[in-house]
Each structure stands twice: as C-alpha cells, then as structure tokens.
Write a structure and sequence with these properties.
Layout lengths: L2 H10 L9 H16 L5 E5 L5 H8 L8 E5 L16 H7 L1 H5 L4 E5 L7 H4 L3 E6 L5 H14 E10 L7 H13 L3 E7 L2 E6 L3 H9 L1 H6 L7 E7 L2 E7 L2 H4 L3 H11 L1 H9 L17
Parallel strand pairs: 1-2, 1-4, 2-3, 4-5, 6-9
Antiparallel strand pairs: 5-7, 6-7, 8-9
Helix pairs in contact: 1-2, 7-8
The structure holds S-adenosylmethionine.
The site of S-adenosylmethionine has 24 residues, from helix 3 and strand 2.
Amino acid sequence: MNPAKVKQLVKQTRTIPGWFSGDAAMLFAWIDEIQKKNNIQGDSFEIGCHHGKSAVLLGSLLDPSREKLSVCDLFGMQEGNVSRSGNGDLDAFNQNMQPVKTSGVSINVFQKNSAELTATEIGRTYRIFHVDGGHNPDEALVDLTLAAECTIDSGIIILDDPFRAEWPGVTEALIRFLDQHPDFQAIMTGFNKLLLSRTQWSDMYVNAFEAKSQRESYGFGYPWRVKEMPFHNYALRVFYVPDYLQKKSVGNLARYVYNKSEWLQKTRQKNPKIGMVKPSQAGSSGS
Ligand SMILES: C[S@@+](CC[C@H](N)C(=O)[O-])C[C@H]1O[C@@H](n2cnc3c(N)ncnc32)[C@H](O)[C@@H]1O
C-alpha cells in the first residue's frame, strides 16, 4: 500500500481504541509493498485484535479476489486473558471491520484461546502473521510457533511488544522461539514491533529497509535512524529516534527544518561554515 493511502486509513481509524501507531501502520504497508514488488501473494492472520485497529489495516492490504484475513481473539471470553493484554470485543470488531468487508475482503473469525488453534484448522497460506495476543511467555511462544508453521516461506511474522519492560514475557518467548527455530531470524525492530523472516528470505526485506529513498517515502527519514545491532546470531536493524532529538527545543526544530529542506542543505554544502552543529550534538551512535 502506498504511504498516502496509509495516512488516510490511519486518519479514518483514529477513533478505534487500541494499540497500533501510525508508524506501525506505515511499517505494515511497507512490508506489503515489498511483498507485492516481489510477487508474494498470500493471506494475513492476526492473533489479538481487540477492537480491530490493526486488523483494519491488515485487511486493507489484501487483494479481495485471492487473499483473505483471518483473526483469533478471546473476545467475550476474557476470563482466559491471563496476561490481561487488551480486552477484545466482537461487536466493536465487527462494526469497525465493516469497510473492509464492504471492499470484498473475506474475514474468518476464530473466537477462542489462540493456544487451541492448529495449523490444520487455519491453513499454511499466510504472507503476514501478526502476533499480538496473550503476552505471557508460554502464550506468546505458542503463538509464534503456530505462526512459523503457517507462514509461507517468503512471509513475515510481526511480533508486538518485543522489548517492553511491562511485557518481559514477550521477550522471553522471542528468544525461546529463535532457539527452537534456527531457520528464522529477527531482521528489524522499531515502532514497538519486531519482524521475523526465514533466513533465506531476509536479504530481500533488509535491502528494502536499507534503501534511504524507501525509508523516506514511508516516513522514516530524519529524525529516524537505523543501526545494526547483534541479536541472536544475526544483525538486527533497529529503527529509533535518538533521545536528544525527541526533546522539544529550538535547536531540534532548526535541525528538523534543515534536514527537510534540500535548499538549506545545498546552501550549506556551498558554505560549510553556515549553521555548524557542535560535534556533541551531531552524535551518530547515541541512543
Ligand atoms: C493488545 S490487544 C491487541 C491490540 C490490537 N492488535 C490493536 O490493534 O489494537 C491483545 C488482544 O489479545 C486478546 N487475547 C489475550 N490473550 C489471548 C489468548 N490467549 N488467545 C486469544 N486472544 C487473546 C485480548 O482479548 C486482546 O483483544
């Protein structure tokens, strides 16, 4: 999906309660674009949909003539939500998904504990599999294991809350999953998500993430940075905004304007002494 359409969709779904940022929506759309450019077709699955905020975006990425969306949530059976992550509501979900259904995308709903899902039941046809259900270690691990079984070779598993202090169980599940699945690799993290792909497909995605023009078109140019950090045997691409650039200050406003203006950059290239940034402020490795 192109970035302009994502922005429009994020605006339209602003009032749906949930935990899905505009940046995460851009990332999902970017993954979709990479897959489409490489002729990768398939369905999408989401474990943990709450009121449908991320499911609307997932459904909107699909080609209704050959791809479908499937979701699983406890919805009204919240006594099974042992980690207390979210609070699914089937009526709200159905109402919020109406525009996706109207566009012709078929939606299968599994109202149950995701630990009871099987690959035979849901099929092995998914190009995007979003894991955002129970956040305890065993819950997230069982969901990741199912995702690995059901994702097509070139597909992507997206894990929510991978490194959040409030949800250490998800990080434990991630590490246990990677220990048990050497055919998978963590390729990128940012916007509270982490992407897993099979190792033989990782370059296709990573090359796209490293292309500056693509990053900028999906809104991840300045002030975003990308660094490679070793994680579980591979280089993980980390998207982040350094702390000092997150502060509201006149200096940061000036940096923002400068980085968004080609004219200012060209002028400074001709006369490098204009508006010199102190080396301590220009840091490239700070977090
Ligand atoms: C964090 S919310 C999902 C947020 C959602 N993706 C969004 O965009 O806002 C987690 C959801 O997982 C559901 N859930 C929790 N444990 C579950 C389990 N074991 N099986 C299925 N769903 C579960 C909850 O009902 C809740 O709706």
